[in-house]
Design goal:
three-stranded antiparallel β-sheet, alpha/beta, 12 strands, Alkaline Phosphatase, subunit A
Length: about 375
Amino acid sequence: MGTTQEDRVLVVVQLTGGNDFMNTVVPYTSEHYYDARKKIVIDQDQVLPINGQLGFNNNAAPLKRLYDEGKMAIIQGIGYPDSNRSHFRGMDIWHTCEPDRVGLDGWLGLAVRELDPDSENVLTGVNIGRGLPRAMAVTGVPVTSIGDLEGYGVMADLEREQLRDKAIETFKNIYGQAIGAGPVAEYIGKTGIDVLKGADLLADVAAKYESPVEYADNPIAKSLRDVARIHLAGLGTRIFYTAHGGYDHHANQMTAHPKQMDELSGAVADFIDDLEQHDAGDNVAVLVFTEFGRRMRDNGSGTDHGSGGGAFLIGNKVEGGLYAEYPPLNPADWEHGEDLRHTIDFRGVYGTVLEQWIDVEARPIVKGNFEQIHPFKT
């Protein structure tokens, strides 16, 4: 059951740890920015201007190219009321759309269920990475999780069994803390996290793939290359998930963050170019998100957990540009006297991709009606 050119595909990239939106899309002409940020700051000559107010961090030049090509929407000020600053709980809220209680169902798992209600294809939803993200987990909905296509293809059966056991163990450890061992055991019993079954279907995908695009040698580039390989194999995957870690920059941010920007932007641009080379990009959209932004003021070496971050939506069918509003930078408008304020609810952005891109009703998944944007070409 392969994908057709009409079947739209959503790729979600999680920036784990809380990306500093202000140092990604920089308000480079704002006195408030330079007043608040003394050391963890992007100077005006290190910015790639978008307009007279905002510019990309110059380490994200490939993203700027995609933006200039009209393929990238920047969603400014994304968040939700009373943003939770804990990584664990914050990410949980983004994964389940449940800010007021601990939710059991991942938003993308629910979308997979809508796309494939009879669970005919264990590859409708595929996670590239270890374990299984909460966003993809719904009892009874099979989702395939694979760490590395290349390595998997050459493994013996016993090694694959061990890998499956490890994945289940990881899953238990993560979700047992959040929702208790009972629901986790029930989930595993009903779904089987059938890493093995789905992953076996992917075992020879890597060997069949050819591309002139040279991805970099880092985890996010490898993960997106695996997404390209599976997409190009036409196995019916409609939702892909992967993550880029290391964004929790409380210290040494000016060394670490530029590297993250370089890796992320290079990987995303290579992925889009790869699809283009294979004439397979028109039905793919990439959503890049993070669990929160960082504080307005730096701490001298890094930035602490905040709110009001930013997200990106990228693809051939995306109407590039700026969406929602950049959070107000005047100190009088800071949330709790120290944070960026959110200007659009993340559940409205999820609703946008669910309804306008993959044609799935949003309300039951995001638990309400939230203002949407209109970033797709008609």
